[in-house]
Design goal:
- It contains eight helices and seven strands.
- It is of the alpha/beta class.
- The protein has one domain: NAD(P)-binding Rossmann-like Domain (Rossmann fold), CATH 3.40.50.
- The structure holds NADP nicotinamide-adenine-dinucleotide phosphate.
- The site of NADP nicotinamide-adenine-dinucleotide phosphate (NAP) has 31 residues, from helix 1.
Length: 264
């Protein structure tokens, strides 16, 4: 399913060194996008950049950055702009998850989670949207979660951060209607990546667990179709349709099933 209509366009992917972001980068390269790859792990980014340039002949640049640091998004934006690179598709995928009781988790680490999942994502969108608006063309893909549809005990801060991502993206999609720019929010369910290893999320029924490649492909297609929100996987989609009509006590109980919540 490769296509040349994206030739010369450039996508920036945050969290490209692993999991869903790495698979999104592979799909974008196979579809002829040049790439700017962002994460903290320089070596993993460089290995992926080499792999994708060799396999698809696309231009790849790495931007090692820690999005939990205040001002990181601004530094990335200026570095990309000063290099003369125009971003046609922005993927805000980098995210952190912490499982455990809110009071037992380290406060500074939870604030770092908010910095990556919310603050940096918002800043990246604001900064890279401006030149897209000038060109009247662009795509933004934000990665939320099915946790955005319900409060999740023992993932309280994570789920709330993803509710922000979905609400923000949905509002922006509407605000940008007619501007030539689309904002797509991808909501994966439990996906087999490093993020869920060692957490209770791995114990959900296997029919609900997806592989990162399938999730990334669904996200790419939804983004290219200019869809506002996409829930990955039919089982997740049906579950989220069902949950919309349930009373809040039941929604909280379903959230508890997602993370059984050992104290960590
Ligand atoms: N896996 C799931 O079950 C699941 C479900 C729903 C939604 N999601 C969402 O999907 C997105 C991708 O998750 P994943 O499962 O692919 O996770 P993952 O395998 O843990 O990958 C996370 C990526 O984010 C990067 N990252 C983490 N902290 C960062 C920081 N401070 N600065 C810059 N980059 C950082 C990591 O790279 P470095 O460590 O090299 O920095 C890595 O590339 C996240 O937003 C996550 O919330 C995941």
């Amino acid at each position: 399913m490769t296509t040349n209509e994206n030739e010369g366009q450039c996508a920036l992917v945050t969290g490209a060194s692993a999991g869903i972001g790495q698979e999104l980068a592979r799909i974008l390269a196979a579809n002829r996008f040049n790439l700017v790859l962002l994460a903290r792990s320089r070596d993993k980014l460089q290995a992926l950049a080499n792999e994708l340039s060799a396999a698809h002949g696309v231009r790849t640049t790495i931007v090692p950055a820690d999005l939990s640091e205040p001002g990181a998004a601004q530094a990335v934006f200026h570095a990309v702009r000063d290099a003369g690179t125009q971003i046609d598709l922005l993927v805000n995928n980098a995210g952190l998850l912490m499982e455990g009781r809110f009071n037992a988790l380290d406060l500074d680490k939870q604030l770092q989670l908010l910095q990556v999942n919310i603050v940096a994502m918002t800043a990246m969108t604001h900064l890279f949207l401006a030149p897209m608006l000038e060109r009247k063309r662009g795509r933004i893909l934000n990665v939320a979660s099915i946790a955005s549809f319900m409060p999740v005990p023992n993932l309280a801060v994570y789920a709330a951060s993803k509710a922000y991502v979905r609400s923000f993206g949905d509002a922006l999609f509407q605000e940008l209607s007619g501007s030539g720019i689309t904002v797509t929010t991808l909501c994966p369910g439990v996906t087999d990546t490093g993020m869920v290893q060692g957490t209770d999320l791995g114990s959900v029924p296997s029919v609900m667990i997806m592989d990162p490649k399938s999730v990334a492909l669904e996200g790419y297609r939804a983004c290219m179709a200019g869809k506002p929100v996409h829930i990955a996987g039919l089982a997740n989609e049906l579950a989220m349709q069902w949950i919309k009509y349930q009373p809040s006590w039941l929604v909280r109980a379903v959230g508890s099933v997602l993370s059984k919540g050992r104290d960590r």
